[in-house]
Design goal:
The complex is a heterodimer of chains A (137) and B (484).
Chain A lengths: L1 E6 L4 E7 L2 H16 L9 E8 L3 H17 L3 E11 L3 E10 L13 E2 L6 E4 L2 E9 L1
Antiparallel strand pairs in A: 1-2, 2-8, 3-5, 4-5, 6-8, 7-8
Helix pairs in contact in A: 1-2
Chain B lengths: L9 E4 L2 E4 L9 E4 L2 H7 L4 H8 L5 E15 L1 E10 L4 E2 L11 E10 H5 L2 H11 L17 H8 L1 H6 L5 H5 L17 H8 L11 E10 L2 H7 L5 E8 L2 H21 L12 E2 L3 H36 L3 H4 L2 E7 L1 E10 L2 E10 L2 E2 L18 E4 L7 E5 L2 H6 L3 E2 L9 H8 L4 H7 L3 E4 L2 H6 L8 H11 L3 E13 L1
Classes of the chains: A alpha+beta (137), B alpha+beta (484).
Chain lengths: 137, 484
């Protein structure tokens, strides 16, 4: 399970891999918040249950990350830990743990505008799940 | 997904490259670049994206790419595509997330030397007065219930009605600062929520307010018409529709993914999802997009008011002495229904400009009365260390590119590369050595925005001038900049 940054001229992306679909969603969320902030400085003090729907893996992935972006941008929450209980082509349900953004302890590395569908593809190959997600920044 | 397909290009002349129609393309591609610029363009996947846009139904004329083109998502940034109103499509990805991101330019009655001496005070005060970076907004701008909907309907007009700027300003804004047929009922509550505290905020990334001066005049006649003269102080404001626009785009993409399937539109990249212009989904997107565009017009109008107040504070002079008047305000992420003559026929088209600027010629009815002789002002900001340009639209742009030209410098370095290249350097000190005082809400942004992360805007502008799709009027150089 892991992720790495993908170079893109104007924007930024992550390449994510995991042993199952749930892990892929967890890892993608972690990678996403690692782009936004220094995730090491975020502690798991509060939790939010996040449920999103869509049709197809790609749509559900964008919906999942977009919901987390909303919780950050509008509710001021930063997350560092994720556990996904359900993940299929139509729905993802998971718990995001983190804390409220605090200027004194948290730095914002990148302001993400949106999660894009650009070249987005979720693949399962030889029992491993992969994806690449590009963010608009 | 059609990745890494071999792209064929045929050089037409010094500034034009044809991408002949092949495979699923419904039309040719046309790229404006010189030999050297083409070398830079080929380093990323932007040409692939020019090709992908040519797949979409109802496209009229070629899929166009301006010299500042770079890899976007779906449509390239620096792309222009026109679609027939009856048979064509509208695509949120052809506008982008930052709907009506745009630029406005103010001129002043001040000389460079008067402002140079006070530049630190002015820039410091701008950073206080104009909310920049994450989460900041002014406490004195609170929208009462129902007001946000009014902003979305009326755009810059709402701002002027509420004391931000003057009625004369509206004459000098693309669409008079208000795109018609905006329907706030089609904007989701999420989008409203994301936008609520962001009206009158600069944001981050490449958004900025820059105080500069006219360093060079290329066309005395047009400069006079626009009210620009050498050494005169100018101000550029670059921002857009903030979280509200991002959410409108996001919501629309979800709808369009389904719609594209339903209408049997084949997509080479999901981000190109679209629907017929006259379909329910197409109309709904255009009405929601208009709301976000109007939010952006209001945003730039409010910020302009605070720029004027800041100058009054710092220079202890009244508005009549400062004469900070609006030259023009352009959108560079937008889709618009326009009438163009193509193939000898007058046609209603939906012109998508994503990272491209409208550049209408002299005597076009959409050009403000004051600029009928010069053509529409086109504002091309460069990076914070070099310069920016004022151009005017041309008849050739009108005939060849649906009245469109470039929008800026265009990135050449990823943000990560920029960070690496700036390691161990003081970007602020380097700029100060060049006489440019920069303040940023976030140091991370500043580092990502180092001048060499961008193409040299002078090269971009020389290409559009060489190709005849824009005409240089003046060059502006920065004295002080605030970044988000």
């Amino acid at each position: 399970m892991g992720y790495e940054l993908v170079e893109h001229t104007a924007d930024i992306g992550i390449r994510v891999w995991a042993d199952d679909a749930k892990g892929l969603f967890e890892e993608a969320a972690r990678g996403f918040f690692d782009i936004i902030t220094d995730i090491k400085n975020v502690t798991a003090q509060i939790e939010r249950t996040v449920t999103v729907r869509g049709s197809g893996w790609e749509e559900v992935m964008v919906a999942w990350l977009t919901e987390l972006l909303y919780l950050y941008e509008v509710k001021g929450l930063l997350f560092c830990d994720f556990s996904v209980a359900e993940a299929d082509r139509g729905k993802v349900k998971g718990i995001a743990r983190g804390e409220r953004f605090n200027e004194k302890r948290h730095s914002i590395k990148t302001v993400v505008k949106a999660v894009t569908y650009h070249q987005l593809e979720i693949r399962e190959q030889d029992g491993r799940w992969h994806t690449q997600i590009i963010f608009d920044i | 997904m059609a990745d890494n397909v071999q792209i064929h290009l045929k050089k037409i002349d010094t500034y034009r490259w044809l991408m002949p129609r092949e495979g699923g393309m419904r039309t040719d591609g046309m790229v404006y670049a010189d030999e050297r610029m083409m070398g830079a363009i080929q380093k990323d996947q932007s040409l692939q994206q020019v090709r992908n846009v040519a797949f979409l139904p109802g496209i009229v004329g070629p899929s166009l790419a301006m010299p500042d083109i770079h890899w976007g998502y779906g449509f390239p940034i620096g792309g222009v595509a026109a679609f027939d109103e009856e048979e064509g499509v509208v695509s949120p990805g052809g506008v982008g997330y930052d709907i009506n991101c745009g630029v406005r330019l103010l001129c002043s009655g001040l000389e460079r030397t008067e402002v140079q001496a006070k530049i630190r005070d002015i820039v410091d005060a701008l950073l206080v007065n104009i909310p920049s970076g994450v989460g900041s907004h002014r406490k004195d701008l609170k929208l009462e219930k129902g007001q946000q909907q009014k902003v979305l309907q009326k755009g810059a007009q709402w701002a002027v009605e509420h004391g931000y700027g003057s009625w004369e300003d509206l004459e000098h804004i693309e669409e008079q600062g208000r795109i018609p047929d905006a329907d706030p009922d089609l904007v989701s509550s999420r989008a409203l929520e994301r936008g609520r505290a962001q009206l009158g905020t600069l944001g981050s990334g490449n958004h900025f307010v820059e105080v500069g001066y006219v360093a060079q005049v290329y066309d005395e006649g047009a400069a006079r018409v626009l009210g620009l003269a050498k050494d005169q102080v100018t101000v550029i404001v670059h921002t857009g529709s903030r979280g509200l626009g991002h959410q409108v785009c996001d919501d629309s993409i979800r709808v369009m993914l389904q719609a594209a399937q339903r209408y049997g539109i084949e997509l080479p990249d999901k981000q190109l999802c679209c629907a017929p212009i006259k379909s329910k989904e197409g109309k709904a997107y255009l009405a929601a997009m208009a709301c976000a565009a109007n939010f952006a017009f209001a945003n730039r109008q409010i910020i302009t008011h605070w720029v004027r107040e800041t100058f009054e504070q710092c220079l202890k002079r009244g508005p009549h002495a400062l004469k900070l008047s609006l030259i023009y305000d352009v959108c560079h992420n937008i889709a618009k229904l326009e009438t163009h003559t193509y193939g000898g026929k007058e046609r209603r088209l939906c012109v998508h400009r994503k990272g491209a600027t409208r550049a209408f010629p002299p005597h076009h009815p959409a050009v403000p009365a004051a600029y009928q002789e010069s053509g529409q002002p086109v504002l091309i900001p460069g990076d914070m260390g070099r310069c920016s340009y004022v151009l005017v639209g041309t008849q050739q742009a009108y005939e060849e590119t649906f009245g469109s030209t470039c929008h800026g410098a265009g990135r050449v370095m990823s943000r990560h590369q920029a960070k690496k290249s700036a390691q161990g350097r003081s970007v602020t000190r380097e700029l100060e050595a060049k006489g440019i005082y920069v303040r940023a809400a976030s140091m991370a942004t500043l580092v990502e925005e180092i001048p060499e992360a961008y193409k040299d805007v002078s090269d971009v502008v020389d290409i559009v001038q060489g190709a005849g799709i824009g005409k240089k009027v003046a060059q502006l150089k920065p004295l002080g900049v605030i970044k988000g």
